[in-house]
Amino acid sequence: xxxxxxxxxxxxxxxxxxxxxxxxxxxxxxxxxxxxxxxxxxxxxxxxxxxxxxxxxxxxxxxxxxxxxxxxxxxxxxxxxxxxxxxxxxxxxxxxxxxxxxxxxxxxxxxxxxxxxxxxxxxxxxxxxxxxxxxxxxxxxxxxxxxxxxxxxxxxxxxxxxxxxxxxxxxxxxxxxxxxxxxxxxxxxxxxxxxxxxxxxxxxxxxxxxxxxxxxxxxxxxxxxxxxxxxxxxxxxxxxxxxxxxxxxxxxxxxxxxxxxxxxxxxxxxxxxxxxxxxxxxxxxxxxxxxxxxxxxxxxxxxxxxxxxxxxxxxxxxxxxxxxxxxxxxxxxxxxxxxxxxxxxxxxxxxxxxxxxxxxxxxxxxxxxxxxxxxxxxxxxxxxxxxxxxxxxxxxxxxxxxxxxxxxxxxxxxxxxxxxxxxxxxxxxxxxxxxxxxxxxxxxxxxxxxxxxxxxxxxxxxxxxxxxxxxxxxxxxxxxxxxxxxxxxxxxxxxxxxxxxxxxxxxxxxxxxxxxxxxxxxxxxxxxxxxxxxxxxxxxxxxxxxxxxxxxxxxxxxxxxxxxxxxxxxxxxxxxxxxxxxxxxxxxxxxxxxxxxxxxxxxxxxxxxxxxxxxxxxxxxxxxxxxxxxxxxxxxxxxxxxxxxxxxxxxxxxxxxxxxxxxxxxxxxxxxxxxxxxxxxxxxxxxxxxxxxxxxxxxxxxx
Length: 703
Prior knowledge:
Elements: E1 5-10, H1 14-27, E2 33-39, E3 43-45, H2 50-54, E4 64-66, H3 67-71, E5 77-80, E6 83-87, E7 92-95, E8 99-101, E9 104-107, E10 111-113, H4 121-124, E11 126-127, H5 131-149, H6 154-160, E12 162-166, H7 170-190, E13 198-202, H8 214-227, E14 230-232, E15 237-241, E16 244-247, E17 252-254, E18 257-260, E19 264-266, E20 277-280, E21 287-289, E22 292-293, E23 307-308, E24 313-316, E25 329-331, E26 336-337, E27 339-340, E28 343-344, H9 349-368, E29 381-385, E30 391-395, E31 398-401, H10 402-434, H11 458-477, H12 503-549, H13 553-565, H14 581-597, H15 600-620, H16 624-640, H17 650-658, H18 669-681, H19 684-689
Helix pairs in contact: 1-9, 5-6, 11-15, 12-13, 15-16, 16-17
């Protein structure tokens, strides 16, 4: 056995990942500490967004954050394996093929659905507690519409189009919202009358979303009814069988789609480890598959893959999130049983993250010495989306509805993802939620869903590149590279600015500056004269209109309209005049200091070179995105220097269009950018900073 301290974290959910990140931050320079994360999947699942997958709003990859993205470039061992047992005395975690020794063990295997022993429910229902569950619901719902479209029997058709959700907590409400939106999409797709589809929510309590205050509850109920949902309160599910489910009040729902969201308990893994449970499941006969415990509707497992779990539950922990049985075993997340102020801590994301933080802190204290930390829950609020367009929330004592609630939820997700995997994860989320909108299912509707095919931008790219090259060559013709004539860019700077080490350049620059200032003055004079003429014309028109008003009101309106229409903008006029405050500020703040330090020869070569380089890059379709950014930068420099006219603003707007992938059509970016992306994504710098898109490229070091 090596002399290193081995920390093994079992489970890559919210709590497990947070614990690993904090442990790594503390021990990243300490080679004597080894951190290992073991999970059955190679990715972290965003459990709070599973309803979007089930409702076909986003794609499955939207809720998968690979551990390579989270821990790439970091000294964390990530292992995809299925742990079968743990020998706590020998301090060994075991799978079918491998054994993993540990000095400290963190259990974060999460929870799984609780069926409360209700007869026939697990065998005939769907659940929504894993990505596999979400995909099953997603595929099954569309299958029901497809089958109903060709079903002649009204009774069978109604059964296919009845969708019943048991449980009006977060999961049930969010799934209901998704199905209500998906209903409209699938009705159009399969030519089904929307009135035939029933979305039914069944709840044993007398209210929905019991964890929220009354006002958000009522707002959510109002929206559900507006969308056409049926809510059946004060009715627990009594029993279920294939295609039929009976409630405690005698109501019977015939449906091929029954989704159970009535709670969770300890995972099936807790039945395999000899740790003291604070609370055991009400059902000791739950069935498990290789995926764990879940609803078996829509599943196709062989009999040998199914087994009865036995007694499972939530593991009892101390205030330090440590097992009551072993001092080197810590737990976090949904699998813990801990009573705080006479209330059991809820199984929510904030609990998982905060307990993960406590676990990491206390393991660090064990290894390095220090004061242990007790778990003190601090919940900031709760948010629930009812589809992609509406939500309710109660955050820090404030209730939010509609757009504001959804915005809060998105902001919380962005904050979490940034801490999880930086810009990489945030960009993936924003791209999926706001740049790939399907069927207008977003708080911003469908305004960002339309995309311009890149080939339409090809002519614009070539023209923009051509004009930039022409601009650069024109400056060459004007003598920008003929330094014997002195500076040609002096007019961009304030009069009297001395260029370091080039007195003759300053002398040559003075006439240039005077010419520029004189030209600017002439332009301003012409503009003032034009404004005076326009004012005179407007006055005459107004007088005519007043006189005509005494004869006929309609003629006055027409004359006034003509006067307004006669006002025009001179598009050839500069956006900002040379002596305008913003130009003076920009010149004195930035350009003057640059001119005093940078030889004018180098400055002019840079300007000409930049214009020609941008143009050639755009024409070739090579590095189009950086070229577009540089183009925008140059445009702003010219605008703030008082030399860009309104008619030239198309430079700016066309450059923005170029950033949408215009170089991938008949351009070198089609080949070069993927190659560069692979190279960059494989670097330690990219992986440690998360400044890359998609997945990292892990290169194995040669031994």
